[in-house]
Amino acid sequence: MDDPVGPDDLLVVDGLDVATGTYLTPPTALGDLAAALRDAPVPGGGDERRLRRRSQADERHLGVTVGFDADDLGSVGWGIVTAPDVDAAVLAALEPLLARRRQQAGDRFRHLVVEDGEDADTFLVRYGATPTVVDPRVVPYYLLLVGGPGALPFDLQYQLGVAYAVGRLDLPDAAAYAAYAASVLAAEDRDAAAAAAQHGARSARLFGPRNPDDTATDLSSRLLLAPLLDEVGRSASAWSVAADAGEPATKQRLRTLLHAPDGPDVLFTASHGLGGPQATALGLGGALVCQDWPGPVQQRGPLTPAQYLAATDVDAAAPVRPRVVLAFACYGAGTPRYSDYPAGPGATLVEIAAQDATAPLPARLLGHPAGGALAFVGHVDRTWSCAFLWHGTTAQTGAFRGALLGLLDGRRVGHALEDLTSRYASLATLLTARIDASERLGKPFPDADLVALWTAVHDARGLVVLGDPAVRAAPPGAGGLVPL
């Protein structure tokens, strides 16, 4: 996780390098970074019309136009999105899930194919949809991309996610896809047989280290986890909500939360993630750094496996207990070949991996042979504290709170996350307006404001769902929500 506002006008970049045991990138002068950003393309520049429409539409409805019910697949539809050469064995492995969604969505079930080189606009127009308003009679609201970012690029997922509820499955083999489908069907069958809400029967856990001498985890522990524990705990009356923050947030504790029979239904983590070429090459991209890391001052040499939780730490014999995992960590969902964040003048493209790749940990959790998670929510590329802090204001946790409460109340994951995913449209529209006012009207756009907005836009854009966006953490109405 990264803190965009550092001392002495420095950008403190805090993703961890497994090889050195400390931060991937040294602090960068705001002026240098701003100079690079002023020469770089505006994020979402090609999506400006769609982003503006989405930003305006957020005040009226979530995702789909008025007259459709985002909770009902028969109303808003469900679709699978693949490349033309998708492996037939993968589709066969997913067929039980596809059959369930076909039954639920009826004639609003679709199998959509992305042609080579298509962006989201071209893809949608080819199917008769517009890039600005979701009409599920044409293209379903819930879309599951099946395949890795080599076939279905991260940019496609970002662009579709402006208006649609999008998830991705990128698993290692057909057996993992079959295991995922079985996990989803088993969870939905259990929900159908259970009462909608049972007080105390469900639990959510917040997990976050507070590593010594580390600004990022100090901020997330105090200004993200603590407010969420208070507010979500008070509002979700039918749930047990607790936290492991600071010293208790060890690797062993995280493993226990993943596998213990009494583990949480929803797990939210806030920590550093591993990044960089070596981490990606070793299958450690997005591994979650725990309290076992002593911080940048005390760490000597490379990180050790005892300090982070990686895919190989997931017990192959024990089912994964949480149905939904939200990981606020650098590279938690994936690592792009080129980072969205330039390092300084003349370095607008920074190569951080050999190729775009989703993270191994969520793939292991979702495709677990003994029963896995239904969805993993995380970031591609870095995360930043601007997700919950805004310059000149106190902590802003409303989007996270809304997402968690939506999950606990049984909304489908893609719909529950609208408070978080809609930030991209709002922030990109604001950034475009500020750049336009600066270039056309000469209005001041200070370096600190530019860097803060740019990082906030990309932080919001990089939040993705891995797994079917139509799954739930609990049956509808399970939250017992009370007003704050």
Low-confidence parts lasting 5 or more residues at pLDDT below 50?
3-8, 48-62
Global structural class: alpha/beta
Count of distinct strands: 20
- Rounded mean pLDDT is 88
What Rg is obtained from the alpha carbons, in whole angstroms? 21 Å
Count of DSSP-assigned helices:
15
Question: What is the makeup of the main sheet?
Answer: 10 strands, mixed
Distance between the termini: 29 Å
State which percent range the strand residues make up: 15-25%
**Principal-axis shape:** globular
Helix content: 25-40%
Strand arrangement, major sheet = 5-4-6-7-20-19-14-10-8-9
Give a nutshell description of this structure.
The chain is 36% helix and 15% strand.
List keywords for this structure.
single chain, alpha/beta, two-stranded antiparallel sheet, 36% helix, disordered N terminus, Gingipain domain-containing protein
Report on the architecture of this protein.
With 484 residues, the protein is α/β, with parallel strands linked by helices. It has a domain at 7-65 and 197-467. Helices cover 36% and strands 15% of the residues. The strands form 6 sheets. Strands 5-4-6-7-20-19-14-10-8-9 form a 10-stranded mixed sheet, sandwiched between helices. Strand 4 (78-82), helix 4 and strand 5 form a beta-alpha-beta unit. Helix 1 (30-39) crosses helix 15, helix 8 packs across helix 12 and helix 12 (398-408) runs antiparallel to helix 14 (418-441). The longest helix is centred in the C-terminal third of the chain and has 24 residues, at 418-441. The two termini are 29 Å apart.
